[in-house]
Amino acid sequence: MHFIVTGGAGFIGSHLTEQLLSDGHHVTVVDNLSTGNLQNLPEHPHLKLLIKDISRCQPQDFTGQIDGLAHLAATPSVTQSWLQPLKAHHNNLSATIAVIQLCQALNIPRLVFASSAAVYGNPTQLPISENQQTYPISPYGLQKLVCEQYAKLFAKQLGFSFVGLRLFNVYGPRQQPNSPYSGVISIFVNAMQQGLPITIYGDGTQTRDFIYVKDVANGFTKALTTLLKSGSSLICNLGNGKNTSLVELVDILKTCFPKHQSATNFMPYRVGDIQHSQADISNASSMLNFTPHWSLKSGLEILIESR
Ligand code: UD2
């Protein structure tokens, strides 16, 4: 099959591209390299690169039949969405509408969208199921939610099938430790490798559902290839299904770095931080046959080895 991966040179997109290629598919990556990096991608006879902003792409930029599009290109930063809401709106929401139009023009039967747990805001119940009310507390979360709604509407109108994957806290190789949207794991691993102190915002009892990037790539692959009715929409959480506190995370990391122990500093909670997060993944499991394969410890070990 032939898939388009927008944001395919980025952290998650490059792992998805690798998996699709190793499963024998053809991939066209679209990336404007704003945060992506061509070094993330292998040289492969079935891989085509289009270095372009997805919202500027024209149907004639693509050749051959396309069986599905995975849309991961975005400004994936809560902070940036507050600082530059109009720019984030363009890169997150308007770009998704451009993607939907591309699906229409190229007759693409499946759209898979990288949504976010940010659509829930402060969860009212754990684990968080897709039925829980969505109440975004950042422009980023709101943009992701509205993207889902646009895609659902157009899927029904145009007859393609849509899968929105609500990503929880993704970690793994190629996640940048120095960017404004760096995840806590990439920041902590980077610091601990250099023996530098780490900072916990709050008391470290807050929990997150950390999912290894290759499990996420697997979830996207299933979402691209599972048989679904045309015109249908499916929303699935994509997490590990377990929650881990920051204190537990630091304890696991310390066992990975037995030689040099970093000091831990505590600072006040970050504004807008949620306290707990854990995905109910039964929908992804029943609808997409998705099971996470990497425990936090095994994922961390691969991440540390890759650096
Ligand atoms: C995640 C997503 C974000 C959005 C949000 C929705 C990542 C990287 N970010 O933000 O895009 O979807 O969920 O709820 O997945 N922390 C420290 N020290 C540090 C860095 C972070 O203590 O040096 C804490 C931070 O205050 C938070 C926890 O670690 O309590 C996780 O932070 P994060 O930035 O990795 O992810 P999160 O859940 O805020």
Fold and architecture overview:
The protein has 307 residues and is an alpha/beta fold. It has a domain of 213 residues: 3-Layer(aba) Sandwich (Rossmann fold). The chain contains nine helices and 13 strands. It has a seven-stranded parallel β-sheet with strand order 3-2-1-4-5-6-11, with helices on both faces. It has a two-stranded parallel sheet with strand order 7-10. The longest helix is centred in the N-terminal third of the chain and has 22 residues. The protein is globular, with a radius of gyration of 19 Å. 45% of the residues are buried. The site of uridine-diphosphate-N-acetylgalactosamine has 20 residues, from strand 7, helix 5 and strand 8.
Entry keywords:
307 residues; alpha/beta; Rossmann fold; seven-stranded parallel β-sheet; two-stranded parallel ribbon; 36% helix; 19% strand; binds uridine-diphosphate-N-acetylgalactosamine
Instruction: Tell me the number of strands.
Output: 13
Q: CATH superfamily membership of the domain at 2-169 and 211-240 and 278-292, which one?
A: NAD(P)-binding Rossmann-like Domain
CATH architecture group name of the domain at 2-169 and 211-240 and 278-292: 3-Layer(aba) Sandwich
Q: Number of helix segments? A: 9
What helical percentage do the residues reach? Answer: 25-40%
- The CATH topology annotation of the domain at 2-169 and 211-240 and 278-292 reads as Rossmann fold
